[in-house]
Design brief:
2 copies of one chain form a homodimer. By secondary structure, chain A is mainly alpha-helical. Chain A contains 11 helices and no strands. In chain A, helix 5 packs antiparallel against helix 8 and helix 5 runs antiparallel to helix 11. Chains A and B meet through helix 6, helix 9, helix 10 and helix 11 of A and helix 6, helix 9, helix 10 and helix 11 of B. Chain B binds a DNA duplex through helix 1, helix 2 and helix 3. Chains A, B: InterPro entries: Homeodomain-like_sf, HTH-type_TetR-like_transc_reg, HTH_TetR, MT1864/Rv1816-like_C, Tet_transcr_reg_TetR-rel_C_sf.
Amino acid sequence: MNASRTARERVRAELIQEITTIARRQLATEGASGLSLRAVARDMGMVSSAIYRYFPSRDDLLTALIVDGYNAVGEVVERADAACPRDDFTGRWLAVCRAVRDWALAHPHEYALLYGSPVPGYQAPVDTIAPATRDTAVFGAIIAEAHRAGRLSPPPVCPEPPVAIAADAEAVRALMPDVSDDVVARAITIWTGLYGIVNFELFGQFDNVITHRAELFEHNMACLAAFIGLTG
Amino acid sequence: MNASRTARERVRAELIQEITTIARRQLATEGASGLSLRAVARDMGMVSSAIYRYFPSRDDLLTALIVDGYNAVGEVVERADAACPRDDFTGRWLAVCRAVRDWALAHPHEYALLYGSPVPGYQAPVDTIAPATRDTAVFGAIIAEAHRAGRLSPPPVCPEPPVAIAADAEAVRALMPDVSDDVVARAITIWTGLYGIVNFELFGQFDNVITHRAELFEHNMACLAAFIGLTG
DNA sequence: CCATCGCCAAGAGCAGTGCTCTCGGAAGTT
DNA sequence: AACTTCCGAGAGCACTGCTCTTGGCGATGG
C-alpha cells in the first residue's frame, strides 16, 4: 500500500532529519573537519555503518549541511529585507548586510563551510547552486528596484567598465534588469565587499587590530551603499 | 665546542627545512586537511614518530607553513610595489592587487590556509602576526605616501565615520600616519574589498556566474582606487 | 496465511590518521 | 673511557571513513 510505504519513507525522513540535526550541532562545536560520522552515530545510539544507509559518504552529509546553511542565511536575509519599508533602499541594503553578519557571527563554522575555503576534494553538487543564490537574489532585487524607482545614482568616481565583462554583466542582469554595466560592476564590488569584511572579521584578520567591529561594519556598508549610489 | 654544536643544529635545521618543503608540496596538491605527518615521513624515508622530534604536533607544522605563506605573499607584494615608479600611487595599488591575486591563483591551498576558514581548534600563535602584516604594511605605505604627496583626495560620497572607530583608526594610523579617520575607514574598505573578491574567486562563489575574472578584478580594483581618492 | 523480497541495524574488518611510549644506538661532552 | 644527549625505529592506542557480511524484522504478493 501507499500508506505503509510512506510510513517507511516517513521514518526514513525523520532519521535523516535527526542525523543532520546532530551533525549540525557537531559542526557548530567542532567545525567542519571535526564532523565525524561515527560520532553522529554514537549520539544516535546507532552503529557507524548504519549511517551509510542514509548518507552514502561524509561528503553527502556535508552537502546536506551546506544546503541547509545557504537556506538559513537566505531566509535570514529575506526576512531582514521584508521587514523594511519597500522604498527605503539604503535601509534594506543595510538590513541585509547586518543580517548576513549577525548570522555569520552566530554560526561561524557553518558560515565558514559556505564562504570559507572549500573542503579539499569536495565538489559542490548542483543541488547547492539554487540555495546559494537566495541571498544574492535579494541583493539584486534591492539594486534593481532602487534603479527602477530612480533612486540609484552612482557617483562618477569609477572608470568605464571594460567591454570584456559585458557578457558576464548580461548574465548578472537576470538578477537586476535594466541596470548599466557600470552598476553591475559596482554591485559586484559591494557584494564582495560585504562578504570580504565579514570574512576578515570571522577568519581572524581583524584580531589585534580592530575592536569596534560592529561600528566599522556599519560605516563600511553605508560607504558601499553610497558607492553604488543608493540615496536616502 | 660551538662548531660541533652548530653542526648538530645545522643538520637539524636542514631536516626541518626538508620537512616543510615536502609538507608544502603536499599542501599544494592535497590541501590543508590532506596534510599528513605520516605521509611526509614516508616521503622522507623516515618513520612517522621521528617527525615529532622536529614538530611536536601537526599544528606546529601548519604554523610553519602559515608563516612561510605570509612571508611569500608579503615578498611578492613588496616586489610588485618596488617595481613601480614611486609617485605612481594608483599603479602601485593596482600592482600589489594583481600580485595578491596572482599569488592566490598560483597557490590556492596556501592562500586558503592564510585567508580562508581557520582550521578548527587551531590558534594562530604570535609568531604568525608579524609576517601576516607584511602585505598590509605595503598597502598602508602606498596610502600614506599618496596622502603626503597630496595625491589622495577621497570623493565626498561617504558619511562621516562614527567616533567609535576613532581608537581603532588611531592604531591603524601606525601604518599610514597623518591620514584622517575617513581615509582609514576607506583604506579598510578597499583592503577587505581586495581580499573579498579574491576569496570569492578562489572559493567558488564566482562559479557559473563570472567568467572574465581578470578583467573584472582589474576594473574592481581601479574602482576601489577611485573610491579612496587615488589620482593619476 | 504463508512465503518471499527488500530494507536495515549490527558487527567485523581494512587502511589510514595523530600522537605516545619505550628501546637501542650513535653522536657529542667531559 | 664514561657519560649525557639526541634521535630513529617500532609497537601501540584511540580515532577516522568506508566496505562487506550476517541476521532479523516488516511490508508485499500469491
